[in-house]
Amino acid sequence: MCTSFRGCTVKEAHEDDLIAELKPALLPRLYGSSGCETWSVRFSPDGSYFAWSMGYGIVKVLPWPLTSKDSAEAGCSEEKTLNCGQMVWALAFGPCRPTRMDVLHQNARDHELLLATGLNNGAIQVWVVSTGNLRFTLTGHEAPVRDLVFTPNGSLTLVSASRDKTLRIWNLAKKGSSPHVLRGPNYWVFRCSMSPDSSAIASVCNLDSKVYLWSLRSYTFMRHLTYDHERTMASCDFSQDGALLAVASYHSTTGWWLDLWDPYTADLLTRVEDCEVCAYRSDNLLTSLSFSPVSLQLAFKDYRALQIWDMERDKLVTNTDHSRAGGVCCAFHPQGGVIATGCRDGQVKFWRVPQLVPSLRHQCRVALRFSVSTYQVEALPLPKKILEYLTYRDIPKQKIIYCKEHCC
């Protein structure tokens, strides 16, 4: 069944784990032409909305689950079309729902839901989701805004990463206030991620073979996570307890790597590599990754497939989307169960994620590690195996992800 919206089509699919598919009304002019890409997809913090940068400066905000055809024809759809006037690189809903009840900030429910859009001209537009109206525009970046993220603590603090080699921290609760500017990288800042306790920011640059860690409390640089070999950095994301930082990178001749770091100690814990049997590894670039907000699952999208690694069980639970459509982004639903991927041709696909209940011991680890650093854990008088588990030192040191063609 196909459900028609203004400017897009929702297709309910029946292939493997594919749940639905969004296709833009404006198709690519030519194969490989720019402007039509879906560079960002996002679910709202409560999971009730989905935002999609569908190319050509247009952003669609749709109610989730996707509205049925009957509801759309009756005028009940809460769909909004935002005309940003520029290519949209980044999206972020805010404020987020506080992950802990003892946060000092005003509860996010007291604020209306906003959507920030990062544009090609360096501006950031902030929209009111309920009305689809533009609230205000933030200026200051001198190049495209490549990534946006609201702090997880429920405040109206927005972090932006730009090709002008800076990150900026905006307080949207104070009208007209100047942002804090974080400088240091010598290359375009591609991605940024916020720790779950809102204390640290991780960022990666396109040609800089290291990860930058910044303090959100003092607005200062803290440390680098440094690689030995030259590589192009693609993405980064914190786990739900902040004890792991996943970093995606690749090299034009050897393919991609996915590394898991301890952000407290700067120790490299695990290296995941692309299929070593494939003859064309250099053509398969890792474009995005995302930790599940509800379990120890890590999704990553390369040119070959969308894969989800269940780290607790050390196995792939999803290996799908075997096409060359060129997926460039992915995002989990906040309650899990669904992941969305965006493609270079402007499409969005929704995939079913296996609902695996985390073990009780992992839930205890998450509760502890959310507010306790690696150094504090290591100082506890606990058996070695328990300490290794709490600090994620028990996961495999190296792992190779074989493609569908070469897996055993």
TrEMBL record:
PANTHER family: WD REPEAT AND SOCS BOX-CONTAINING PROTEIN 2, WD40 REPEAT PROTEIN. It holds the Pfam family SOCS_box. This is SOCS box domain-containing protein. It comes from Phoxinus phoxinus (Eurasian minnow). It comes from the Eukaryota. The keyword Disulfide bond does not apply. Residues 357-396 form the SOCS box domain. WD repeats lie at residues 138-172, 331-353. Pathway: Protein modification; protein ubiquitination. Keywords: Repeat, Ubl conjugation pathway, WD repeat. GO terms for biological process: intracellular signal transduction; protein polyubiquitination. Gene3D superfamilies: SOCS box, YVTN repeat-like/Quinoprotein amine dehydrogenase.
